[in-house]
Amino acid sequence: MDYKQELKNFFGDNCLLDEPMSRHTTYRTGGPVEAYVYPQTHEEWSFVLKIARTFNIPLHIIGFGSNILVGGKGMGGIVCSTKRLGSLSVEGDHIRAEAGCALDKVCEKACEAGLAGMEKLSGIPGTIGGAVYMNAGAFGQETFDTLEYFDVIDLEGRPATLLKQDLHYAYRHVEGIENYIILSASFALQKNDFTKLMETRNTILHKRIEKQPLEFPSAGSVFKRPPNDYASRLIDDTGLRGLSVGGAKVSEKHAGFIVNFNHATPEDIRTLMQEVRDKVKEKHGVELELEQILWGEFNV
Ligand SMILES: Cc1cc2nc3c(=O)[nH]c(=O)nc-3n(C[C@H](O)[C@H](O)[C@H](O)COP(=O)(O)OP(=O)(O)OC[C@H]3O[C@@H](n4cnc5c(N)ncnc54)[C@H](O)[C@@H]3O)c2cc1C
């Protein structure tokens, strides 16, 4: 039996074969993956990891796909979604959330409980797993600021708890994180005034609506912030605001975003990323580093 059939037999409706990744990424474009599964129990994770090992198949983990571009030719192997791991609890000044919980829901819950430290992460459209993996951040706050520890399994299926203090992390980077599947995370927050926190949260959400092109599919900032500068400032200063390739465009509202404004192919987006990098390099001598993650094969 081939590995796809084995997965289908085991996962039933929780396994989608030849599934278009356009349905699972916020860019709303991307070719198919061979198998898309929703493991939830320890047994299901062990099974999918065993299949990947036995058949020597690549395996990827996805949250809300809000930082990923998948090539038009699609991808071999398995994508495991954490979307159905969604429990969330508050105990004293700690919040514990499963990997598939929306980060924004955790921020809201923290504010409602009068707990400070995550309010500025409000509106980031990813999961807790994706936020830990990326050390997502905004307005001077980062996921690792309040993260205490997180529970993982490694690629052999062995469980472990990783403490923040044992890890090397930086801006949008956590060393060695790609060797783990994040199952849940625990945050240590500080008591604060509920009304004040809700006010900060609402201000942040309004700023996002005001400054970001949320009316179009995108995956947020394309590039990391270069030292002592902003990618959007460099892109803008190079005259690239509004530059388009096919259905992809450098947002007119926020030059750090590329938006899918008209049925963009992944190749349109990737070509535009490269044009922006080349032109910024030419004008400013700065090599912009991608923040977004590319998966699969591209047509060009
Ligand atoms: C409109 C918009 C605004 C944004 N604003 C911000 C912002 O202000 N700040 C910011 O930091 N980001 C921002 N982003 C980018 C994105 O939301 C974050 O990077 C987010 O943390 C990604 O979470 P996700 O669940 O979507 O991860 P995905 O995109 O699904 O995955 C990202 C990476 O994390 C890995 N991963 C995800 N879950 C797990 C897991 N459980 N275990 C192991 N690996 C995992 C994936 O394999 C992949 O490598 C924005 C995106 C959009 C579309």
Give the number of domains.
3
Terminal CA distance reads 33 Å
Q: What is the name of the CATH architecture of the largest domain?
A: 2-Layer Sandwich
- Small molecules held by this entry: flavin-adenine dinucleotide
Strand content: 25-35%
**Shape field:** globular
Helix-strand string: HEEHEEEEEHEHEEHEEEEEEHHEEEHE
Strand order of the largest sheet: 6-7-15-11-12
Total count of helical runs of at least 4 residues: 8
Task: Give me the Rg, rounded.
Answer: 20 Å
Classify the oligomer: single chain
Would you tell me the overall average pLDDT? Answer: 97
Helices and strands: which structural class? alpha+beta
CATH class of the largest domain: Alpha Beta
Low-confidence stretches: none
The major beta sheet can be summarized as: 5 strands, antiparallel
Helix content: 25-40%
The total strand number stands at: 20
CATH topology group of the largest domain: Uridine Diphospho-n-acetylenolpyruvylglucosamine Reductase, domain 3
Describe the model.
It is a single chain. The chain is built from 8 helices and 20 strands. By secondary structure, the protein is of the alpha+beta class. It folds into 3 domains: 79 residues, Uridine Diphospho-n-acetylenolpyruvylglucosamine Reductase, domain 2; 124 residues, Uridine Diphospho-n-acetylenolpyruvylglucosamine Reductase, domain 3 (2-Layer Sandwich), CATH 3.30.465.10; 65 residues, UDP-N-acetylenolpyruvoylglucosamine reductase, C-terminal domain (Uridine Diphospho-n-acetylenolpyruvylglucosamine Reductase, domain 1). β6 and β7 form a beta hairpin. The longest helix has 19 residues. It is globular, with a radius of gyration of 20 Å. The mean pLDDT is 97. The site of flavin-adenine dinucleotide has 32 residues, from β3, α4, β9 and β15.
